[in-house]
């Protein structure tokens, strides 16, 4: 009797802590999402499980997948995954009331990992974005991966091929390692891959490393509420930079702190390092460093504005308004590269002047600091080495009545002349 009880107890312990591998079922020509959703809702695969998209199979993810709260779960993408190639089918899923906010929506849980495979011919997630870009179709576009409110885990070795729009967002998550991912949103026809943002960092204790992004919007964007963000050892091509913001739209209180962005190559990007907050915002961005950034063929290597204002909204509030997002302890250190200063029109420019045009700029500026009086503290650019592609002297833009401390170069609209803090 005693022995039997012990035996039952022991087998329960063994089975409750066993690791399970669940291979996602696939049916040729059919949507594979419902089968996975059914298994997820049954509950048995939401703890201590690998959910495996197996190598050798191309899965049809014809409708979005909403993962429930999960603990100790790994979603392994070893096969290929394909979105519908039909634009209206995707639009209908995004417009549906059941749309979970992203094509792959994770929300809640602990120790959740989304991973791919090192095999270069498998593990691709193909969204067929080219057709959307070619048609300039911007209605009901899906976001790729929402990785929200998860504590602990990783996103690694994922390969995205031609996303329709935004890729990864980590809002409200903490202690996540995002490494060795590839996002390839390069258009093969000359159409522009609008809003194909790489990584949107919201949350706490997030490390990004060894990522390669080719896209048409921010490579990295750090948003409201982000804290302790580290980005390193990466390559960004074609997009809109290593960005913080935009913060404080419509008077919103936005806070970002402790961000280190380093060891990254920016190639043919519109911006290198970029900060943007809206006029009239509240909150603060503090302790933000960009360092060891190599840039090649970049029109705006370093660009900061505390005065972002949409022209369509009429006259901006006066510069003496009490409300503005504060910026404190910003360091740009160890930038080297070439400034694209020839006749230039980036693919996302559809207006005249272009949305990124800076009144008064010559195109030869390595740094543009558009700061707001009394709200910018300890902003320094140091060890900056740049040449223009035309060979013209390198310039800066900076309004000395907005900041009086040493910012590392002479604060004026003129030639780049390093000062004491700049060496
Ligand atoms: C999951 O595994 C952990 C050990 O890693 C164990 O403590 C826990 O009981 C398991 N949970 C379930 C539901 O199997
Ligand atoms: C999964 O694990 C979590 C946290 O350990 C626990 O609260 C939950 O009950 C578990 N779920 C199942 C189905 O065992
Ligand atoms: C976290 O999940 C991974 C799989 O992604 C697993 O190997 C590991 O054991 C889990 N950690 C804990 C503490 O259960
Ligand atoms: C997986 O998808 C990628 C991207 O669409 C493709 O290049 C590759 O050939 C596919 N792999 C196989 C084995 O079909
Ligand atoms: C972030 O990391 C720090 C240092 O390891 C830790 O003290 C803190 O609890 C973490 N924050 C969250 C939200 O996990
Ligand atoms: C401006 O800032 C003050 C002081 O922080 C705050 O009370 C007020 O609500 C803000 N106004 C707007 C329009 O954001
Ligand atoms: C500033 O941020 C960096 C990088 O996240 C961090 O290591 C450092 O501790 C922060 N400094 C302060 C004073 O919080
Ligand atoms: C410089 O800043 C002051 C104070 O905000 C402002 O009044 C002035 O218009 C600015 N000058 C330029 C050229 O932007």
Report on this model:
It is built from four helices and 29 strands. It is mainly β and 423 residues long. The protein has a single domain, classed as 3 Solenoid (Pectate Lyase C-like). Strand 1, helix 2 and strand 2 form a beta-alpha-beta unit. It is elongated. The N terminus is likely disordered. Bound molecules: 2-acetamido-2-deoxy-beta-D-glucopyranose (8 copies). The site of one 2-acetamido-2-deoxy-beta-D-glucopyranose has 4 residues, from strand 21.
* Domain unit count: 1
Number of strands: 29
CATH-defined topology: Pectate Lyase C-like
Main beta-sheet strand count, sense and barrel state: 29 strands, mixed
Could you name the ranges where pLDDT drops below 50 across 5 or more consecutive residues?
1-15
Proportion of beta-strand residues: 35-45%
The radius of gyration over CA amounts to 24 Å
Helicity, in percent?
A: under 10%
């Amino acid at each position: 009797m005693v022995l039997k009880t012990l035996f039952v107890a022991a087998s329960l312990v063994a089975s409750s802590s066993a690791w399970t591998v669940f291979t996602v079922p696939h049916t040729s020509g059919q949507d594979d999402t419902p089968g996975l959703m059914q298994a997820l809702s049954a509950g048995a695969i939401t703890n201590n499980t690998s959910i495996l998209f197996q190598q050798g199979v191309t899965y049809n993810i014809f409708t979005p997948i909403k993962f429930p709260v999960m603990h100790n779960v790994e979603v392994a993408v070893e096969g290929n995954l394909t979105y519908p190639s039909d634009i209206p089918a995707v639009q209908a899923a995004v417009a549906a009331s059941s749309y979970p906010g992203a094509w792959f929506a994770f929300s809640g849980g602990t120790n959740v990992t989304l991973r791919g495979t090192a095999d270069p011919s498998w593990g691709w997630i193909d969204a067929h974005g080219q057709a959307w870009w070619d048609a300039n179709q911007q209605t009901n576009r899906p976001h790729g991966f929402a990785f929200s409110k998860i504590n602990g885990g990783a996103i690694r070795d994922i390969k995205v091929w031609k996303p329709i729009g935004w890729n990864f967002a980590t809002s409200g998550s903490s202690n996540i390692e995002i490494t060795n991912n590839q996002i390839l949103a390069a258009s093969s026809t000359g159409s522009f891959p609008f809003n194909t943002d790489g990584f949107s960092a919201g949350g706490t204790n997030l490390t990004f490393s060894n990522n390669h992004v080719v896209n048409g919007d921010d490579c990295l964007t750090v948003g409201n509420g982000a804290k302790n963000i580290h980005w390193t050892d990466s390559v960004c091509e074609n997009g809109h930079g290593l960005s913080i913001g935009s913060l404080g739209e419509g008077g919103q209180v936005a806070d970002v702190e402790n961000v280190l962005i380093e060891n990254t190559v920016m190639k043919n990007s519109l911006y290198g390092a970029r900060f943007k907050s809206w006029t009239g915002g509240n909150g603060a961005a503090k302790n933000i460093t960009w360092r060891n950034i190599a840039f090649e063929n970049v029109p705006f290597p370093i660009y900061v504005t505390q005065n972002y204002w949409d022209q369509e909204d009429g006259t901006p509030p006066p510069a003496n308004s009490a409300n503005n997002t504060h910026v404190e302890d910003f360091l740009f250190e160890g930038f080297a590269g070439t400034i694209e200063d020839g006749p230039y029109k980036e693919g996302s420019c559809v207006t005249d002047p272009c949305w990124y045009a800076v009144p008064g700029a010559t195109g030869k500026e390595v740094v543009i600091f558009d700061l707001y009086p009394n709200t910018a503290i300890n902003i320094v650019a140091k060890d900056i080495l740049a040449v223009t592609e035309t060979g013209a002297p390198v310039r800066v833009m900076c309004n000395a009545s907005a900041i009086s401390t040493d910012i590392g170069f002479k604060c004026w609209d003129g030639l780049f002349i390093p000062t004491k803090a700049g060496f």
